[in-house]
Specification:
Layout: E1 42-47, H1 62-70, H2 84-87, E2 90-95, H3 104-120, E3 124-129, H4 135-142, E4 148-153, H5 173-179, E5 183-193, H6 204-209, E6 212-215, H7 216-235, E7 240-245, H8 267-276, E8 282-288, H9 299-318
Parallel strand pairs: 1-2, 1-3, 3-8, 4-5, 4-7, 5-6, 7-8
The structure holds manganese (II) ion (MN) (2 copies).
Length: 330
Amino acid sequence: MTMIKMPKRYPELANPQMRPRFTGVPTFFRLPLSEDLAGLDIGIIGVPYDGGVTNRPGARHGPREVRNQSSLMRVFNEGTGVAPFLGRRVADLGDCWIEQPYALEGAHAEIAEFFHAVKAAEVTTLAVGGDHSISLPILRAVAAKGPLGMVHIDAHCDTGDDYLGSRFHHGAPFRRAVEENLLDPRRVIQIGIRGTVNDPRMWAFSRESGMRVLPMDEFHDEGWRFALAEAKRVIGEAPAYLSFDIDSLDPVYAPGTGTPETGGISTIEAMRLLRGLTGCRFVGADLVEVSPPFDQGGITAFHGAAILFELLCLLAAAEGDVQRPGAGAA
Ligand code: MN
Ligand code: MN
């Protein structure tokens, strides 16, 4: 390969991730953009689809803004010592864009097909939505070999039923996933649940199917350490998925989302909770519901990018030890 500009004084700057962070084209974490699956361990995939929202749209613009804000991230996790780019081959696989976006169930089938292709190459997927309806077709690919456990962090359980004539929307993916035997509800925990409802039984499916619902009031009373212990207890040792809805965060941190609910998780609580899950057997993850048109100064996409880095570290660590040199030393 012939490079136009070769670094003269700092050879490490041949790596785009080591260059000044305001330079370059904004891929996820300034990774190489590639549609080639060969030799990869983890692929980060944008899913710019928001045809499943029940209220404010805009999450189709989420992947691009999270890419942009993710250029602020560096390469090591100081909280856990995980070095995802040293230990694993990671790429930005571009977008799972939809050929026929006006038909929701067809769009979901296109998403499932895309993720099936990535899984067939034995590449672990980290998705950036998009609205939360995308988690169902992703699970159809990731859980193809049997039901998974799940850590689900969200203001909403997303286990509703038919809404305005559709069984598929961003308030129902995990009910459908249980019905399709993609999730084992007894190994699912939902953290951060809150807000108003029109129907007191809106999320009844979660509890009746055996999911552990950890509402925001309980999180606030017992703290992130308790939520972490509960999450580990519920998912156990078997493979699990991690789904992070940005509306789990308090709207002061994440105003740019479709269905904000006041009184949510703070960013430091979310970071501590996620870092505490290092070593769990996560086989895939997603970050959803960042809606840039409702954002203020990029704050939601920025926090989304920081959360995405934690999710990447969890996936990297789930495949074996990936500590940076010297991590853990006194
Ligand atoms: Mn959700
Ligand atoms: Mn939500």
